């Protein structure tokens, strides 16, 4: 399946550092010092940017070159990377998170699934926190504007130790101190956010779609041609998300051929990346168009196992008339909670309308 150019695979130093042993900068430990009164911990202050981290005493601190300021490694198996740059008042936290997702989230990338994303407060600072899984690990990502810096802090741990070690990350974030000095101007509101016609409605002329989504769900756009809807954990039912992505089918000749080709690629990708895959027979589905007759596509339900957990995936491929573009809707949830969330997802699909693409 061809994807649009900005979906190319990008692996930056932050993730390569998980597998490649780091080379410490000479004197990198000079900025860490033992502390009294905060338990077994050490305090690190970045020599140029001034932010302060309190980390476990036995953790290894490695200063790096851009884009990563510093990494912290533990013998327990987790690693934390801190990246920062000059604050950009024209970018919202959500826009910065979407930029991060455009690098890491999606097929053939480190993050295969977004489990949650939403606003929070870290050490008294407004932040956007999200949780991802993929490549045998889980990642908590915190995006914040700290003083005059825009910061991304990533905590990465293998699946087998994530639950036991993420409490350390909570403690490090609670003790985080931003750089001293004047703060950046107030953050702009969502200047670059997709057009929303009201609460619970995503309406994007560039993608050519309009769809309602459940109240309280988080919406992010990792790339201009992709939108992700994530269910907050407090809703219960386990992690679940739905996404719509515009892809360019490698099969041409007719709308039917384009759709069938995309479904074949979806099945091939699942066969490669997960285990115990079983598919239902593909069935037709119709969606409303804002102009003209309904669009006819195909839908597929797939069961598989990821990280020893059974999942169910509902995939829908809808053609865009007169082009090789196919809209791909995907809903993924643990099998035990799939039917709990399914009524809300079915309501989403029933509201989904294909609209003229804005030019």
* Mean pLDDT over the residues: 77
Q: What is the end-to-end distance?
A: 24 Å
Largest sheet: 11 strands, mixed
Topology as a string of helices (H) and strands (E): HEEEEEEHEEEEHEEEEEHEEEEEHE
Radius of gyration: 22 Å
Shape: elongated
Strand content: 35-45%
Number of helices, where a helix is a run of at least 4 consecutive DSSP H or I residues:
5
What does the model show?
With 359 residues, this protein is α+β, with helices and mostly antiparallel strands. It is 20% helix and 40% strand. It is built from 5 helices and 21 strands. Strands 11, 12, 13, 14, 15, 16, 17, 18, 19, 20 and 21 form an 11-stranded mixed beta sheet that branches. A 7-stranded antiparallel beta sheet has the order 4-5-6-10-9-8-7, with helices on both faces. The protein is elongated and about 65 Å long.
Task: Write a concise keyword list for the protein shown above.
disordered N terminus, elongated, 11-stranded mixed β-sheet, 20% helix, 5 helices, 7-stranded antiparallel β-sheet, alpha+beta, 359 residues
Give the secondary structure arrangement, pairings included.
Layout: H1 13-19, E1 32-34, E2 41-45, E3 52-56, E4 60-63, E5 68-73, E6 79-86, H2 93-104, E7 113-122, E8 125-134, E9 137-146, E10 149-158, H3 159-174, E11 201-204, E12 209-212, E13 218-223, E14 226-230, E15 241-248, H4 255-273, E16 275-279, E17 283-289, E18 295-306, E19 309-319, E20 325-334, H5 335-351, E21 353-354
Give a brief description.
By secondary structure, the chain is an alpha+beta fold. The protein has five helices and 21 strands.
């Amino acid at each position: 399946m061809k994807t649009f150019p900005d979906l190319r695979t990008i692996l930056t130093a932050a993730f390569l550092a998980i597998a490649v042993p780091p080379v410490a900068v000479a004197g990198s430990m000079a900025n860490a010092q033992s502390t009294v009164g905060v338990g077994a911990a050490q305090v690190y202050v970045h020599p140029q940017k001034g932010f302060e981290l309190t980390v476990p005493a036995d953790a290894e601190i490695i200063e790096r070159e851009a884009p990563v300021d510093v990494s912290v490694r533990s013998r327990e198996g987790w690693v934390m990377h801190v990246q920062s740059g000059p604050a950009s008042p024209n970018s919202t936290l959500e826009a910065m998170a979407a930029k991060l997702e455009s690098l890491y989230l999606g097929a053939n990338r480190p993050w295969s699934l977004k489990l949650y994303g939403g606003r929070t407060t870290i050490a008294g600072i407004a932040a956007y926190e999200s949780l991802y899984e993929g490549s045998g690990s889980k990642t908590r990502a915190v995006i914040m504007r700290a003083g005059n810096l825009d910061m991304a802090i990533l905590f990465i741990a293998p699946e087998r130790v994530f639950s036991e070690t993420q409490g350390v990350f909570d403690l490090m974030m609670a003790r985080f101190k931003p750089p001293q000095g004047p703060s950046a101007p107030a953050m702009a509101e969502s200047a670059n956010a997709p057009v929303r016609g009201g609460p619970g409605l995503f309406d994007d002329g560039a993608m050519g779609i309009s769809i309602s989504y459940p109240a309280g769900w988080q919406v992010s756009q990792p790339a201009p041609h992709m939108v992700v809807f994530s269910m907050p954990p407090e809703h219960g039912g386990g992690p679940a998300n739905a996404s719509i992505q515009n892809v360019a089918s490698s099969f041409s000749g007719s709308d039917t051929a384009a759709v069938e080709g995309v479904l074949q690629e979806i099945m091939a990708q699942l066969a490669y990346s997960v285990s115990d895959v079983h598919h239902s027979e593909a069935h037709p589905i119709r969606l409303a168009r804002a102009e003209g007759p309904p669009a006819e596509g195909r839908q597929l339900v797939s069961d598989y196992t990821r990280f020893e957990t059974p999942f169910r995936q509902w995939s829908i491929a809808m053609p865009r008339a007169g082009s090789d573009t196919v809209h791909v809707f995907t809903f993924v949830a643990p099998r035990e909670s799939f039917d709990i969330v399914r009524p809300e997802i079915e309501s989403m699909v029933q509201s989904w309308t294909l609209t003229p693409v804005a030019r």
